């Protein structure tokens, strides 16, 4: 290792890279994080920030639960940065055919201390009169769910990492990777500078697959464009909790006292991550707002407030891709539009993996599972984003 070397180099200061850096630095590992923009400057900073532990995968449910706990108690972790966590509660509206699966899953989640209450028929209509519920069979209400600020959370995790000795190199793009004899990689930066990494973690979101290709590994990660729309609705009868409609395929959460943030739960359009439309078109905004208003009629009175588009790095089963892809080279990517709220606690597992002490439950996310045909189940029908 040269004098600019680190035990671990991380590519990407999205919330996943920042969280792994936080946990690694706290364990005494020398970490350097290379980020082409600034922390959360990529898709993380444009995330809708929904935080729920309503997962069908038990390990991810626990990671989300623990992340929410970290974000609720963020002051020390974030060195003055605010995670912005707001507990609002979140209602999942399912079609009748999901009833058995939802009931079984709610029982499992409740044993994990993730409070989910179920409502059906007249009880559902009585508890949630704000919705048109004709085609809904069961509603699951997650009490502790809410939303947080992805930029603040990432900045805080990064600040916590730096306070424990990590080095952040922002506005620096990794240009080339080469495997290093004995494990790890040589990481080339602009200006002919290179860093030797005994271990390398690629946490570069939609840019992970091209970086992995440089060390001879093909990862089956796609990149999709997804839109987010916002509206203002000051009506005192507005619902203060988030909801997701699993029949239509959208999510909608409050933002502060009088706004909503919404997006689709189904797959989006494949795009080139370096060339795509970052704005939301008016027709896309209307389609989303109308879909929400059919279920939640008060939304007809909301004022459109614009929105944006950003990228999901999507794996074939919509579950994360985490593992060692070459000796001393690891990836944490493929979070498929649901990875913000997993990251604060999942980063500890990623750090343990990089340090050679993985939790055996992490093996299910191995990048080679696709070649072996061992895809994970996730969510409900095309709403695999629910994990
Ligand atoms: C519109 C939208 C809404 C979402 N809503 C939610 C939600 O409500 N709840 C939820 O939990 N999740 C949500 N997500 C998903 C969540 O935001 C992501 O899963 C998460 O942010 C992924 O973080 P990451 O660190 O893996 O990747 P990224 O945020 O993509 O970070 C990767 C970083 O790597 C850097 N990088 C890439 N190449 C290089 C290079 N060569 N050299 C140096 N740096 C490089 C990039 O600049 C980037 O900052 C949403 C995502 C989007 C886009």
Outline the structure in words.
The structure is a single chain. The strands form 3 sheets. Strands 5, 6, 7, 13, 14, 15, 16, 17 and 18 form a 9-stranded mixed beta sheet that branches. Strands 1, 2, 9, 10, 11, 12, 19 and 20 form an 8-stranded mixed beta sheet that branches. With 387 residues, the chain is of the alpha+beta class. It has 2 domains: 6-68 and 150-220 and 316-386, FAD/NAD(P)-binding domain (3-Layer(bba) Sandwich), CATH 3.50.50; 87-144 and 222-314, D-Amino Acid Oxidase, Chain A, domain 2. It is built from 9 helices and 20 strands. Strand 10 (176-179) and strand 11 form a beta hairpin. Residues 11-17, 34-37, 41-44, 46-50, 173-174, 203-207, 226, 228, 263, 310-312, 333, 335, 337-341 line the site of flavin-adenine dinucleotide.
* CATH topology name of the largest domain: FAD/NAD(P)-binding domain
Tell me, what's the shape?
A: globular
Average pLDDT taken over every residue:
96
| Number of strand segments | 20
Bound chemical compounds: flavin-adenine dinucleotide
N→C terminal distance: 40 Å
Largest sheet: 9 strands, mixed
Helix content: 25-40%
* Uncertain segments: none
The Cα radius of gyration reads 21 Å
Number of helices: 9
* CATH architect. name of the largest domain: 3-Layer(bba) Sandwich
State the domain count: 2
* Structural class by secondary-structure content: alpha+beta
What string gives the helices and strands in order? Answer: EHEEHHEEHEHEEHEEEEHEEEEEHEEEH
Strand content: 25-35%
CATH top level of the largest domain is Alpha Beta
| Fourth-level CATH superfamily of the largest domain | FAD/NAD(P)-binding domain
């Amino acid at each position: 290792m040269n004098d600019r070397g680190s035990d671990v180099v991380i590519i990407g200061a999205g919330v996943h890279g920042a969280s792994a850096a936080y946990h690694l630095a706290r364990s005494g590992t020398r970490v350097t994080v290379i980020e082409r923009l600034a922390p959360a400057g990529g898709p993380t900073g444009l995330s809708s920030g929904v935080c729920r532990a309503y997962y069908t995968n038990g390990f991810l449910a626990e990671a989300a639960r623990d992340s929410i706990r970290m974000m609720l108690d963020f002051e020390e972790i974030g060195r003055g940065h605010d995670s912005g966590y707001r507990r609002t509660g979140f209602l999942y509206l399912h079609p009748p055919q999901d009833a058995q699966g939802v009931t079984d899953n709610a029982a499992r989640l409740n044993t994990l201390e993730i409070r989910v209450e179920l409502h059906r028929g007249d009880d559902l209509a009585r508890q949630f009169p704000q919705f048109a519920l004709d085609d809904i069979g069961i509603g699951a209400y997650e009490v502790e769910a809410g939303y947080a600020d992805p930029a603040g959370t990432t900045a805080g995790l990064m600040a916590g990492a730096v306070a424990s000795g990590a080095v952040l190199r922002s506005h620096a793009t990794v240009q080339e990777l080469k495997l290093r004899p004995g494990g790890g990689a040589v990481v080339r930066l602009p200006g002919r500078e290179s860093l030797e990494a005994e271990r390398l973690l690629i946490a570069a979101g939609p840019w992970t697959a091209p970086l992995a290709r440089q060390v001879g590994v093909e990862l089956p990660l796609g990149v999709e464009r997804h839109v987010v729309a916002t509206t203002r609705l000051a009506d005192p009868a507005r619902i203060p909790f988030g909801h997701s409609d699993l029949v239509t395929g959208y999510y909608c959460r409050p933002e502060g006292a009088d706004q909503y943030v919404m997006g689709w739960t189904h797959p989006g359009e494949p795009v080139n991550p370096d060339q795509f439309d970052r704005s939301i078109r008016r027709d896309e905004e209307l389609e989303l707002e109308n879909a929400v208003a059919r279920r939640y009629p008060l939304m007809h009175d909301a004022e459109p407030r614009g929105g944006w588009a950003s990228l999901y790095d999507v794996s074939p089963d919509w579950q994360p891709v985490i593992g060692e892809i070459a000796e001393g080279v690891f990836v944490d990517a493929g979070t498929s539009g649901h990875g913000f709220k997993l990251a604060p606690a999942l980063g500890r597992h990623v750090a343990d993996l990089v340090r050679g002490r993985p939790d055996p439950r992490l093996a299910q996310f191995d990048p080679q599972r696709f070649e072996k045909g061992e895809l994970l189940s996730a969510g409900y029908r095309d709403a695999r984003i629910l994990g």
